[in-house]
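Form 7-S
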Amino acid sequence: MPPRFFVLPNKDGQTAKEIFTKTHEKMVKAGSEWLTTTSTACSVVNTIIATVVFTSCTTYPGSSDEKDINSIGKPNLLGNDEFNNFMNASLVSFCFSVISLVMFLAILTSRQQENDFATNLPRKLLFGLTSLFISIAAMLTSFCSSHLFAREDKLKNSTVLLYAVTFLPTSLFAAAQFPLYIDLVRATYWHPF
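Output:
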């Protein structure tokens, strides 16, 4: 419909926007309930990830040097590549988990009005899901890195299968959520008219 017709009333005195709002009340309510449920579940997952990763960062594996006064509290494994990967992945996981948590809390505290479903809420959901997936991948990378320097050298090669199995459920979950992700990208950023 051309935009100039949006403001014209029909024979009952209703504009196109009023008709749309009235006929889509149930859809807005269902969408709001789904968004609240999804955001709540993702917030719980993010809180668990942030707690686990924060704990692993602050109580890093290996001991610290307590003999030298200038290096008290510094980890002994600081120069180790696997340890550095562990610390970096833990930091990335924690940061993206907090970002995702903030996005889902922003969704939960929003008004969730009809106009919000056009771009505001889908953008927050898209950003929250992206951050959640990055956080999960970084957490698994952190786990694998910490596991590498904790294992003996002769067993390091045999753990590749374990890492593949560890990443498999996350990959399956991401693949299952991919259609939703694509729909969110299309609805939010692709406008053919």
